[in-house]
Amino acid sequence: MATQQTASAGRALVSPSVILLFIWMIVPLVMTLYFSTLRYSLLDPDNVGFVGLQNYTSFLTDPDFIAALINTLVLVVSVLIISVCGGILVALLMDQPVFGQNVLRLMVIAPFFVMPTVSALVWKNLLMNPDSGFFAWIAKSLGFQPIVWFTNWPMLSVIIVVSWEWLPFASLILLTALQSLDEEQKEAASLDGAGPFSYFGYIVLPHIARAITVVILIETIFLLSVFAEIYVTTSGGPGVATTNIPFLVYKQALLNFDVGSASAGGIIAVILANIVAFFLMRIIGRNLEG
Amino acid sequence: MAMKKSTGERIGITVLAWLVAFIIFFPILWTILTSFKSELDAISMPPKFLFFNWTLENYTEVQHRSNYLHYAWNSILLSIGANIVGLIFAIPAAWSMAFAPGKRTKDLLMWMLSTKMMPAVGVLVPLYLLFKNLGLLDSLFGIGLVLMLINLPLLIWMLYTYFKEIPNDILEAARMDGASLINEIVYVLTPMAVPGIASTMLLAIILSWNEAFWTLNLATSNAAPLTAFIASYSAPEGYFWAKLSAASTLAIAPILILGWFSQKQLVRGLTFGAVK
Question: What pTM does this model have?
Fold first, then answer.
Protein backbone atom coordinates (compact mmCIF):
# COMPACT_ATOMS: atom_id res chain seq x y z
CA MET A 1 0.00 0.00 0.00
CA ALA A 2 1.02 3.52 -0.63
CA THR A 3 2.67 5.04 2.38
CA GLN A 4 2.69 8.73 3.16
CA GLN A 5 6.10 8.99 1.57
CA THR A 6 5.33 7.17 -1.67
CA ALA A 7 2.08 9.07 -2.00
CA SER A 8 3.83 12.42 -1.97
CA ALA A 9 6.55 11.05 -4.27
CA GLY A 10 3.76 9.86 -6.54
CA ARG A 11 2.30 13.33 -6.76
CA ALA A 12 5.70 14.81 -7.47
CA LEU A 13 6.40 12.37 -10.29
CA VAL A 14 3.08 12.68 -12.02
CA SER A 15 2.89 16.45 -11.86
CA PRO A 16 5.33 17.31 -14.71
CA SER A 17 3.19 15.37 -17.16
CA VAL A 18 -0.01 16.83 -15.77
CA ILE A 19 1.32 20.37 -16.02
CA LEU A 20 2.59 19.83 -19.57
CA LEU A 21 -0.70 18.35 -20.74
CA PHE A 22 -2.67 21.02 -18.96
CA ILE A 23 -0.75 23.77 -20.69
CA TRP A 24 -0.96 21.94 -24.01
CA MET A 25 -4.69 21.49 -23.73
CA ILE A 26 -5.97 24.55 -21.94
CA VAL A 27 -3.82 27.43 -23.19
CA PRO A 28 -4.43 26.97 -26.93
CA LEU A 29 -8.06 26.14 -26.36
CA VAL A 30 -8.65 29.29 -24.35
CA MET A 31 -6.82 31.25 -27.03
CA THR A 32 -9.03 29.71 -29.73
CA LEU A 33 -12.07 30.63 -27.70
CA TYR A 34 -10.80 34.18 -27.30
CA PHE A 35 -9.89 34.58 -30.99
CA SER A 36 -13.28 33.26 -31.98
CA THR A 37 -14.90 36.39 -30.51
CA LEU A 38 -12.64 38.78 -32.41
CA ARG A 39 -12.62 40.43 -35.76
CA TYR A 40 -9.06 39.41 -36.55
CA SER A 41 -7.54 39.04 -39.98
CA LEU A 42 -3.82 38.58 -40.50
CA LEU A 43 -4.16 40.65 -43.66
CA ASP A 44 -5.33 43.60 -41.58
CA PRO A 45 -3.74 42.99 -38.18
CA ASP A 46 -4.27 46.53 -36.86
CA ASN A 47 -8.01 46.32 -37.13
CA VAL A 48 -8.74 43.86 -34.33
CA GLY A 49 -11.91 44.19 -32.33
CA PHE A 50 -14.40 42.32 -30.22
CA VAL A 51 -17.40 41.10 -32.19
CA GLY A 52 -19.05 38.69 -29.76
CA LEU A 53 -20.67 35.74 -31.42
CA GLN A 54 -20.61 37.21 -34.88
CA ASN A 55 -17.97 34.78 -36.13
CA TYR A 56 -20.15 31.89 -35.03
CA THR A 57 -23.25 33.24 -36.71
CA SER A 58 -21.38 33.97 -39.91
CA PHE A 59 -19.64 30.59 -39.80
CA LEU A 60 -22.86 28.74 -39.08
CA THR A 61 -24.83 30.54 -41.78
CA ASP A 62 -22.04 30.24 -44.35
CA PRO A 63 -23.17 27.81 -47.06
CA ASP A 64 -19.61 26.45 -47.14
CA PHE A 65 -19.89 25.53 -43.49
CA ILE A 66 -23.16 23.65 -44.02
CA ALA A 67 -21.52 21.85 -46.96
CA ALA A 68 -18.45 21.05 -44.85
CA LEU A 69 -20.59 19.76 -42.01
CA ILE A 70 -22.53 17.50 -44.38
CA ASN A 71 -19.29 16.36 -46.04
CA THR A 72 -17.79 15.55 -42.65
CA LEU A 73 -20.81 13.48 -41.67
CA VAL A 74 -20.96 11.72 -45.04
CA LEU A 75 -17.26 10.87 -44.84
CA VAL A 76 -17.40 9.63 -41.24
CA VAL A 77 -20.57 7.58 -41.64
CA SER A 78 -19.58 6.01 -44.98
CA VAL A 79 -16.12 5.03 -43.82
CA LEU A 80 -17.57 3.64 -40.59
CA ILE A 81 -20.07 1.48 -42.45
CA ILE A 82 -17.49 0.21 -44.93
CA SER A 83 -14.74 -0.42 -42.41
CA VAL A 84 -16.91 -2.00 -39.70
CA CYS A 85 -18.96 -4.26 -41.99
CA GLY A 86 -15.90 -5.10 -44.06
CA GLY A 87 -13.86 -5.48 -40.89
CA ILE A 88 -16.27 -8.05 -39.45
CA LEU A 89 -16.12 -10.10 -42.65
CA VAL A 90 -12.33 -9.87 -42.90
CA ALA A 91 -11.92 -10.75 -39.22
CA LEU A 92 -14.19 -13.79 -39.56
CA LEU A 93 -12.16 -14.90 -42.57
CA MET A 94 -8.81 -14.36 -40.86
CA ASP A 95 -10.04 -16.30 -37.84
CA GLN A 96 -10.34 -19.44 -39.98
CA PRO A 97 -7.50 -21.93 -39.85
CA VAL A 98 -6.23 -21.39 -43.37
CA PHE A 99 -2.85 -22.01 -44.95
CA GLY A 100 -0.44 -19.15 -44.28
CA GLN A 101 -2.67 -17.42 -41.71
CA ASN A 102 0.13 -15.31 -40.28
CA VAL A 103 1.20 -13.96 -43.65
CA LEU A 104 -2.42 -13.15 -44.47
CA ARG A 105 -2.76 -11.18 -41.28
CA LEU A 106 0.35 -9.14 -42.07
CA MET A 107 -0.99 -8.33 -45.53
CA VAL A 108 -4.37 -7.25 -44.18
CA ILE A 109 -3.01 -5.00 -41.44
CA ALA A 110 -0.37 -3.36 -43.65
CA PRO A 111 -2.40 -0.40 -45.00
CA PHE A 112 -2.85 0.92 -41.49
CA PHE A 113 0.89 1.62 -41.27
CA VAL A 114 1.07 3.58 -44.50
CA MET A 115 1.34 7.31 -43.92
CA PRO A 116 -1.78 9.21 -45.05
CA THR A 117 0.00 11.29 -47.69
CA VAL A 118 1.37 8.13 -49.33
CA SER A 119 -1.99 6.35 -49.29
CA ALA A 120 -3.76 9.30 -50.81
CA LEU A 121 -1.24 9.94 -53.60
CA VAL A 122 -0.80 6.28 -54.50
CA TRP A 123 -4.56 5.84 -54.80
CA LYS A 124 -5.06 9.07 -56.67
CA ASN A 125 -2.32 8.41 -59.24
CA LEU A 126 -1.33 4.79 -59.55
CA LEU A 127 -4.80 3.36 -59.07
CA MET A 128 -7.47 5.95 -59.83
CA ASN A 129 -5.90 8.02 -62.60
CA PRO A 130 -8.35 7.89 -65.54
CA ASP A 131 -5.63 7.60 -68.22
CA SER A 132 -2.98 5.29 -66.84
CA GLY A 133 -4.31 4.14 -63.49
CA PHE A 134 -4.83 0.50 -62.64
CA PHE A 135 -8.60 0.87 -62.31
CA ALA A 136 -8.77 2.49 -65.72
CA TRP A 137 -7.08 -0.59 -67.15
CA ILE A 138 -9.62 -2.87 -65.44
CA ALA A 139 -12.50 -0.75 -66.73
CA LYS A 140 -11.11 -0.74 -70.28
CA SER A 141 -10.45 -4.48 -70.21
CA LEU A 142 -14.06 -5.06 -69.25
CA GLY A 143 -15.21 -2.74 -72.00
CA PHE A 144 -16.26 0.21 -69.82
CA GLN A 145 -15.30 3.85 -69.96
CA PRO A 146 -12.76 4.55 -67.15
CA ILE A 147 -14.19 6.54 -64.27
CA VAL A 148 -12.69 9.99 -63.74
CA TRP A 149 -12.60 9.38 -60.00
CA PHE A 150 -11.47 12.57 -58.33
CA THR A 151 -13.23 14.88 -60.79
CA ASN A 152 -16.62 13.22 -61.13
CA TRP A 153 -16.84 11.33 -57.83
CA PRO A 154 -14.60 13.36 -55.50
CA MET A 155 -16.26 12.45 -52.22
CA LEU A 156 -16.60 8.79 -53.13
CA SER A 157 -12.90 8.71 -54.04
CA VAL A 158 -11.89 10.20 -50.70
CA ILE A 159 -14.19 7.74 -48.91
CA ILE A 160 -12.55 4.81 -50.72
CA VAL A 161 -9.03 5.94 -49.82
CA VAL A 162 -9.88 6.58 -46.17
CA SER A 163 -11.80 3.29 -45.90
CA TRP A 164 -8.76 1.42 -47.18
CA GLU A 165 -6.73 3.00 -44.37
CA TRP A 166 -9.22 2.12 -41.64
CA LEU A 167 -10.54 -1.28 -42.69
CA PRO A 168 -7.35 -2.96 -41.38
CA PHE A 169 -7.75 -1.27 -38.00
CA ALA A 170 -11.33 -2.53 -37.63
CA SER A 171 -10.28 -5.99 -38.83
CA LEU A 172 -7.41 -6.23 -36.36
CA ILE A 173 -9.43 -5.12 -33.34
CA LEU A 174 -12.38 -7.37 -34.22
CA LEU A 175 -10.08 -10.30 -34.91
CA THR A 176 -8.55 -9.85 -31.46
CA ALA A 177 -12.03 -9.87 -29.96
CA LEU A 178 -13.03 -12.94 -31.98
CA GLN A 179 -10.02 -14.88 -30.80
CA SER A 180 -11.07 -14.52 -27.19
CA LEU A 181 -14.24 -16.48 -27.92
CA ASP A 182 -13.68 -19.70 -26.04
CA GLU A 183 -13.63 -23.10 -27.68
CA GLU A 184 -16.28 -24.53 -25.34
CA GLN A 185 -18.85 -22.05 -26.49
CA LYS A 186 -18.06 -22.85 -30.10
CA GLU A 187 -18.44 -26.56 -29.43
CA ALA A 188 -21.66 -26.15 -27.48
CA ALA A 189 -23.10 -24.22 -30.38
CA SER A 190 -22.11 -26.86 -32.89
CA LEU A 191 -23.53 -29.63 -30.66
CA ASP A 192 -26.81 -27.76 -30.49
CA GLY A 193 -26.80 -27.83 -34.26
CA ALA A 194 -26.62 -24.08 -34.72
CA GLY A 195 -26.31 -23.06 -38.36
CA PRO A 196 -23.68 -20.57 -39.41
CA PHE A 197 -26.07 -17.61 -39.36
CA SER A 198 -27.67 -18.28 -35.99
CA TYR A 199 -24.18 -19.07 -34.67
CA PHE A 200 -23.02 -15.66 -35.87
CA GLY A 201 -26.12 -13.85 -34.63
CA TYR A 202 -26.38 -15.42 -31.19
CA ILE A 203 -22.79 -16.23 -30.24
CA VAL A 204 -20.30 -14.19 -32.28
CA LEU A 205 -22.07 -10.87 -32.60
CA PRO A 206 -22.89 -10.43 -28.89
CA HIS A 207 -19.32 -11.44 -28.05
CA ILE A 208 -17.74 -8.80 -30.27
CA ALA A 209 -20.43 -6.15 -29.73
CA ARG A 210 -18.29 -4.16 -27.36
CA ALA A 211 -15.27 -4.30 -29.62
CA ILE A 212 -17.46 -3.01 -32.45
CA THR A 213 -18.57 -0.10 -30.29
CA VAL A 214 -14.98 0.73 -29.42
CA VAL A 215 -13.96 0.58 -33.09
CA ILE A 216 -16.83 2.89 -34.05
CA LEU A 217 -15.99 5.45 -31.38
CA ILE A 218 -12.23 5.49 -31.95
CA GLU A 219 -12.59 5.62 -35.71
CA THR A 220 -15.12 8.45 -35.41
CA ILE A 221 -12.66 10.53 -33.43
CA PHE A 222 -9.96 10.05 -36.05
CA LEU A 223 -12.33 10.39 -39.01
CA LEU A 224 -13.69 13.70 -37.74
CA SER A 225 -10.18 15.06 -38.29
CA VAL A 226 -9.29 13.59 -41.69
CA PHE A 227 -7.02 16.18 -43.27
CA ALA A 228 -3.92 14.97 -45.13
CA GLU A 229 -5.87 12.79 -47.57
CA ILE A 230 -7.95 15.76 -48.69
CA TYR A 231 -5.00 18.15 -48.63
CA VAL A 232 -2.96 16.15 -51.14
CA THR A 233 -5.74 14.89 -53.42
CA THR A 234 -8.54 17.40 -53.93
CA SER A 235 -7.65 20.40 -51.76
CA GLY A 236 -11.27 20.35 -50.72
CA GLY A 237 -12.60 20.62 -54.25
CA PRO A 238 -13.95 20.65 -56.81
CA GLY A 239 -15.71 23.66 -55.31
CA VAL A 240 -16.33 22.55 -51.75
CA ALA A 241 -17.27 18.98 -52.69
CA THR A 242 -14.67 17.41 -50.40
CA THR A 243 -14.14 20.21 -47.88
CA ASN A 244 -14.71 18.84 -44.40
CA ILE A 245 -14.60 20.86 -41.19
CA PRO A 246 -10.85 20.44 -40.52
CA PHE A 247 -10.06 21.46 -44.07
CA LEU A 248 -12.42 24.45 -43.90
CA VAL A 249 -10.77 25.66 -40.71
CA TYR A 250 -7.34 25.21 -42.29
CA LYS A 251 -8.49 27.18 -45.33
CA GLN A 252 -9.90 30.03 -43.25
CA ALA A 253 -6.80 30.22 -41.09
CA LEU A 254 -3.81 29.59 -43.34
CA LEU A 255 -5.16 30.48 -46.78
CA ASN A 256 -7.65 33.27 -46.02
CA PHE A 257 -5.84 34.45 -42.87
CA ASP A 258 -9.15 34.93 -41.08
CA VAL A 259 -8.20 34.07 -37.51
CA GLY A 260 -11.57 34.91 -35.96
CA SER A 261 -13.65 32.80 -38.27
CA ALA A 262 -11.20 29.88 -38.26
CA SER A 263 -11.23 29.87 -34.47
CA ALA A 264 -15.01 29.71 -34.39
CA GLY A 265 -14.78 26.71 -36.74
CA GLY A 266 -12.18 25.12 -34.48
CA ILE A 267 -14.45 25.44 -31.47
CA ILE A 268 -17.30 23.84 -33.41
CA ALA A 269 -14.98 20.93 -34.30
CA VAL A 270 -14.07 20.54 -30.63
CA ILE A 271 -17.73 20.39 -29.64
CA LEU A 272 -18.45 17.74 -32.28
CA ALA A 273 -15.52 15.58 -31.17
CA ASN A 274 -16.52 15.93 -27.54
CA ILE A 275 -19.92 14.45 -28.15
CA VAL A 276 -18.25 11.28 -29.42
CA ALA A 277 -15.50 11.34 -26.81
CA PHE A 278 -18.10 11.48 -24.04
CA PHE A 279 -19.43 8.04 -24.97
CA LEU A 280 -15.99 6.57 -25.62
CA MET A 281 -14.69 7.71 -22.25
CA ARG A 282 -17.62 6.07 -20.50
CA ILE A 283 -16.81 2.72 -22.08
CA ILE A 284 -13.11 2.96 -21.30
CA GLY A 285 -13.88 4.12 -17.76
CA ARG A 286 -16.17 1.17 -17.17
CA ASN A 287 -13.37 -1.11 -18.29
CA LEU A 288 -10.92 0.48 -15.90
CA GLU A 289 -13.13 -0.49 -12.96
CA GLY A 290 -13.08 -4.18 -13.86
CA MET B 1 -17.05 -21.54 -37.57
CA ALA B 2 -17.18 -24.48 -35.27
CA MET B 3 -18.72 -26.93 -37.68
CA LYS B 4 -16.63 -29.66 -39.26
CA LYS B 5 -15.86 -28.70 -42.78
CA SER B 6 -15.38 -30.71 -45.93
CA THR B 7 -12.09 -30.44 -47.80
CA GLY B 8 -13.83 -28.53 -50.56
CA GLU B 9 -15.14 -25.92 -48.17
CA ARG B 10 -11.75 -25.60 -46.60
CA ILE B 11 -10.04 -24.99 -49.94
CA GLY B 12 -12.75 -22.49 -50.83
CA ILE B 13 -12.22 -20.52 -47.63
CA THR B 14 -8.44 -20.56 -48.08
CA VAL B 15 -8.70 -19.24 -51.62
CA LEU B 16 -11.18 -16.55 -50.52
CA ALA B 17 -9.00 -15.48 -47.61
CA TRP B 18 -5.94 -15.15 -49.85
CA LEU B 19 -7.92 -13.26 -52.45
CA VAL B 20 -9.24 -10.75 -49.90
CA ALA B 21 -5.82 -10.27 -48.33
CA PHE B 22 -4.26 -9.81 -51.76
CA ILE B 23 -6.80 -7.13 -52.74
CA ILE B 24 -6.25 -5.23 -49.50
CA PHE B 25 -2.47 -5.44 -49.88
CA PHE B 26 -2.44 -4.74 -53.62
CA PRO B 27 -1.98 -0.93 -53.52
CA ILE B 28 1.20 -1.39 -51.47
CA LEU B 29 2.48 -4.16 -53.72
CA TRP B 30 1.74 -2.05 -56.79
CA THR B 31 3.63 0.90 -55.30
CA ILE B 32 6.67 -1.28 -54.64
CA LEU B 33 6.58 -2.72 -58.18
CA THR B 34 6.14 0.72 -59.76
CA SER B 35 9.16 2.01 -57.85
CA PHE B 36 11.37 -0.30 -59.96
CA LYS B 37 9.96 0.82 -63.31
CA SER B 38 11.08 3.57 -65.63
CA GLU B 39 8.68 6.53 -65.69
CA LEU B 40 7.49 5.37 -69.11
CA ASP B 41 6.74 1.83 -67.93
CA ALA B 42 5.00 3.23 -64.84
CA ILE B 43 2.25 4.86 -66.90
CA SER B 44 2.12 2.26 -69.66
CA MET B 45 -1.28 1.00 -70.67
CA PRO B 46 -1.90 -1.92 -70.30
CA PRO B 47 0.14 -1.92 -67.08
CA LYS B 48 3.31 -3.99 -66.89
CA PHE B 49 3.23 -6.43 -64.01
CA LEU B 50 6.59 -8.17 -63.76
CA PHE B 51 8.08 -8.04 -67.22
CA PHE B 52 9.62 -4.61 -67.47
CA ASN B 53 13.16 -3.34 -67.22
CA TRP B 54 13.78 -3.41 -63.51
CA THR B 55 15.74 -0.37 -62.45
CA LEU B 56 16.99 1.24 -59.27
CA GLU B 57 17.22 4.59 -61.01
CA ASN B 58 14.25 6.09 -59.15
CA TYR B 59 15.80 5.48 -55.79
CA THR B 60 18.98 7.33 -56.69
CA GLU B 61 17.02 10.04 -58.53
CA VAL B 62 14.82 10.74 -55.52
CA GLN B 63 17.93 11.39 -53.48
CA HIS B 64 19.70 13.46 -56.15
CA ARG B 65 16.81 15.65 -57.16
CA SER B 66 14.99 16.23 -53.92
CA ASN B 67 17.40 15.31 -51.16
CA TYR B 68 15.30 12.47 -49.81
CA LEU B 69 17.68 11.74 -46.95
CA HIS B 70 17.16 15.17 -45.43
CA TYR B 71 13.46 14.41 -44.92
CA ALA B 72 14.05 10.84 -43.85
CA TRP B 73 16.53 12.05 -41.26
CA ASN B 74 13.95 14.56 -39.97
CA SER B 75 11.38 11.78 -39.69
CA ILE B 76 13.81 9.63 -37.72
CA LEU B 77 14.89 12.47 -35.43
CA LEU B 78 11.33 13.61 -34.80
CA SER B 79 9.67 10.27 -34.21
CA ILE B 80 12.42 8.83 -32.03
CA GLY B 81 13.54 12.03 -30.31
CA ALA B 82 10.07 13.23 -29.40
CA ASN B 83 9.16 9.91 -27.86
CA ILE B 84 12.38 9.50 -25.90
CA VAL B 85 11.69 12.87 -24.29
CA GLY B 86 8.10 11.71 -23.84
CA LEU B 87 9.30 8.60 -22.00
CA ILE B 88 11.28 10.73 -19.56
CA PHE B 89 8.01 12.32 -18.50
CA ALA B 90 5.84 9.25 -18.91
CA ILE B 91 7.81 6.65 -16.94
CA PRO B 92 7.69 8.53 -13.60
CA ALA B 93 4.06 9.45 -14.18
CA ALA B 94 3.10 5.85 -14.94
CA TRP B 95 5.10 4.65 -11.93
CA SER B 96 3.18 7.00 -9.73
CA MET B 97 -0.19 5.92 -11.08
CA ALA B 98 0.58 2.22 -10.92
CA PHE B 99 2.38 2.01 -7.58
CA ALA B 100 1.31 5.04 -5.58
CA PRO B 101 -2.27 5.56 -6.69
CA GLY B 102 -4.33 8.18 -4.92
CA LYS B 103 -8.06 8.82 -4.92
CA ARG B 104 -7.85 10.84 -8.09
CA THR B 105 -5.57 8.57 -10.12
CA LYS B 106 -8.39 7.15 -12.19
CA ASP B 107 -9.82 10.56 -12.96
CA LEU B 108 -6.39 11.77 -13.89
CA LEU B 109 -5.87 8.91 -16.32
CA MET B 110 -9.23 9.58 -17.91
CA TRP B 111 -8.49 13.28 -18.15
CA MET B 112 -5.17 12.58 -19.87
CA LEU B 113 -6.93 10.37 -22.38
CA SER B 114 -9.50 13.02 -23.06
CA THR B 115 -6.75 15.38 -24.21
CA LYS B 116 -6.06 12.84 -26.98
CA MET B 117 -9.57 13.31 -28.24
CA MET B 118 -9.35 17.00 -28.86
CA PRO B 119 -9.32 17.60 -32.61
CA ALA B 120 -6.15 19.25 -33.83
CA VAL B 121 -8.00 21.93 -35.80
CA GLY B 122 -9.42 23.21 -32.53
CA VAL B 123 -6.00 24.56 -31.61
CA LEU B 124 -4.47 25.06 -35.05
CA VAL B 125 -4.92 28.83 -35.09
CA PRO B 126 -3.36 29.75 -31.74
CA LEU B 127 -0.60 27.22 -32.12
CA TYR B 128 0.26 28.46 -35.58
CA LEU B 129 0.37 32.06 -34.33
CA LEU B 130 2.37 31.13 -31.23
CA PHE B 131 4.85 29.20 -33.35
CA LYS B 132 5.09 32.07 -35.78
CA ASN B 133 5.78 34.63 -33.07
CA LEU B 134 8.27 32.41 -31.27
CA GLY B 135 10.08 31.50 -34.50
CA LEU B 136 9.24 27.83 -34.04
CA LEU B 137 7.62 27.30 -37.43
CA ASP B 138 9.56 24.77 -39.47
CA SER B 139 11.88 23.98 -36.56
CA LEU B 140 12.63 20.46 -35.36
CA PHE B 141 12.25 21.59 -31.77
CA GLY B 142 8.75 23.01 -32.28
CA ILE B 143 7.42 20.07 -34.24
CA GLY B 144 9.10 17.59 -31.93
CA LEU B 145 7.44 19.30 -29.00
CA VAL B 146 4.01 18.96 -30.58
CA LEU B 147 4.59 15.30 -31.46
CA MET B 148 5.78 14.64 -27.92
CA LEU B 149 2.69 16.24 -26.42
CA ILE B 150 0.16 14.48 -28.62
CA ASN B 151 1.69 11.10 -27.77
CA LEU B 152 2.29 11.71 -24.06
CA PRO B 153 -1.18 10.55 -22.88
CA LEU B 154 -0.80 7.36 -24.90
CA LEU B 155 2.69 6.70 -23.50
CA ILE B 156 1.50 7.17 -19.92
CA TRP B 157 -1.59 5.08 -20.48
CA MET B 158 0.22 2.15 -22.07
CA LEU B 159 3.09 2.18 -19.59
CA TYR B 160 0.55 2.26 -16.78
CA THR B 161 -1.11 -0.92 -18.06
CA TYR B 162 2.29 -2.64 -18.32
CA PHE B 163 3.49 -1.44 -14.92
CA LYS B 164 0.28 -2.73 -13.34
CA GLU B 165 1.41 -6.23 -14.26
CA ILE B 166 4.63 -5.94 -12.23
CA PRO B 167 4.19 -7.08 -8.62
CA ASN B 168 4.55 -4.25 -6.15
CA ASP B 169 6.44 -6.55 -3.73
CA ILE B 170 9.58 -6.44 -5.84
CA LEU B 171 9.65 -2.65 -5.79
CA GLU B 172 8.92 -2.65 -2.08
CA ALA B 173 11.80 -5.04 -1.43
CA ALA B 174 14.10 -2.63 -3.21
CA ARG B 175 12.71 0.18 -1.10
CA MET B 176 13.35 -1.85 2.10
CA ASP B 177 16.93 -2.32 0.98
CA GLY B 178 17.21 1.44 1.02
CA ALA B 179 17.03 2.16 -2.70
CA SER B 180 16.10 5.73 -3.41
CA LEU B 181 13.08 6.43 -5.54
CA ILE B 182 15.16 7.32 -8.58
CA ASN B 183 17.24 4.16 -8.19
CA GLU B 184 14.08 2.13 -7.76
CA ILE B 185 12.68 3.45 -11.04
CA VAL B 186 15.93 3.37 -13.01
CA TYR B 187 17.45 0.10 -11.76
CA VAL B 188 14.50 -2.02 -10.67
CA LEU B 189 11.33 -1.03 -12.49
CA THR B 190 12.72 -0.03 -15.88
CA PRO B 191 14.74 -3.21 -16.54
CA MET B 192 11.74 -5.36 -15.60
CA ALA B 193 9.43 -3.35 -17.81
CA VAL B 194 11.71 -3.29 -20.87
CA PRO B 195 9.34 -5.33 -23.06
CA GLY B 196 6.42 -3.08 -22.18
CA ILE B 197 8.45 0.09 -22.66
CA ALA B 198 9.75 -1.19 -25.99
CA SER B 199 6.29 -1.94 -27.34
CA THR B 200 5.00 1.38 -26.11
CA MET B 201 7.86 3.14 -27.89
CA LEU B 202 7.24 1.15 -31.04
CA LEU B 203 3.60 2.21 -31.28
CA ALA B 204 4.44 5.81 -30.42
CA ILE B 205 7.14 5.93 -33.10
CA ILE B 206 4.73 4.56 -35.71
CA LEU B 207 2.11 7.16 -34.82
CA SER B 208 4.63 10.02 -34.90
CA TRP B 209 6.16 8.83 -38.17
CA ASN B 210 2.76 8.95 -39.86
CA GLU B 211 1.43 12.09 -38.18
CA ALA B 212 0.26 14.32 -41.00
CA PHE B 213 -1.69 17.24 -39.61
CA TRP B 214 0.88 19.17 -37.64
CA THR B 215 3.79 18.15 -39.84
CA LEU B 216 1.97 19.47 -42.92
CA ASN B 217 0.87 22.69 -41.25
CA LEU B 218 3.90 23.63 -39.18
CA ALA B 219 6.80 22.42 -41.36
CA THR B 220 7.78 23.54 -44.82
CA SER B 221 11.33 22.47 -45.59
CA ASN B 222 13.95 22.65 -42.85
CA ALA B 223 12.14 20.47 -40.38
CA ALA B 224 9.80 18.74 -42.82
CA PRO B 225 9.57 14.97 -42.36
CA LEU B 226 8.59 12.41 -45.00
CA THR B 227 4.85 13.09 -44.73
CA ALA B 228 5.43 16.60 -46.02
CA PHE B 229 8.02 15.44 -48.56
CA ILE B 230 5.55 12.99 -50.11
CA ALA B 231 2.85 15.67 -50.12
CA SER B 232 5.08 17.74 -52.42
CA TYR B 233 4.37 15.12 -55.10
CA SER B 234 0.75 16.22 -55.23
CA ALA B 235 1.72 19.20 -57.40
CA PRO B 236 0.34 18.40 -60.85
CA GLU B 237 3.51 18.99 -62.84
CA GLY B 238 3.56 15.88 -64.96
CA TYR B 239 3.75 12.24 -64.10
CA PHE B 240 6.44 11.15 -61.68
CA TRP B 241 4.82 7.95 -60.59
CA ALA B 242 7.95 5.86 -60.46
CA LYS B 243 9.72 8.44 -58.32
CA LEU B 244 6.64 8.93 -56.16
CA SER B 245 6.56 5.15 -55.70
CA ALA B 246 10.23 4.94 -54.81
CA ALA B 247 9.90 7.74 -52.28
CA SER B 248 6.74 6.15 -50.89
CA THR B 249 8.31 2.72 -50.62
CA LEU B 250 11.23 4.15 -48.69
CA ALA B 251 8.88 6.12 -46.47
CA ILE B 252 6.63 3.22 -45.51
CA ALA B 253 9.06 0.27 -45.47
CA PRO B 254 10.64 0.83 -42.04
CA ILE B 255 7.32 1.53 -40.38
CA LEU B 256 5.64 -1.42 -42.05
CA ILE B 257 8.27 -3.71 -40.58
CA LEU B 258 8.02 -2.13 -37.12
CA GLY B 259 4.24 -2.26 -37.37
CA TRP B 260 4.19 -5.93 -38.17
CA PHE B 261 6.14 -6.58 -35.00
CA SER B 262 3.80 -4.54 -32.88
CA GLN B 263 0.35 -5.79 -33.88
CA LYS B 264 -0.59 -6.92 -30.39
CA GLN B 265 0.50 -3.67 -28.76
CA LEU B 266 -1.40 -1.80 -31.40
CA VAL B 267 -4.68 -3.27 -30.19
CA ARG B 268 -3.84 -2.53 -26.60
CA GLY B 269 -2.58 0.96 -27.28
CA LEU B 270 -5.18 2.17 -29.70
CA THR B 271 -8.19 0.91 -27.79
CA PHE B 272 -6.73 2.10 -24.47
CA GLY B 273 -7.16 -1.39 -23.07
CA ALA B 274 -10.85 -1.55 -23.92
CA VAL B 275 -10.25 -4.57 -26.17
CA LYS B 276 -7.79 -7.24 -25.08
Answer: 0.87
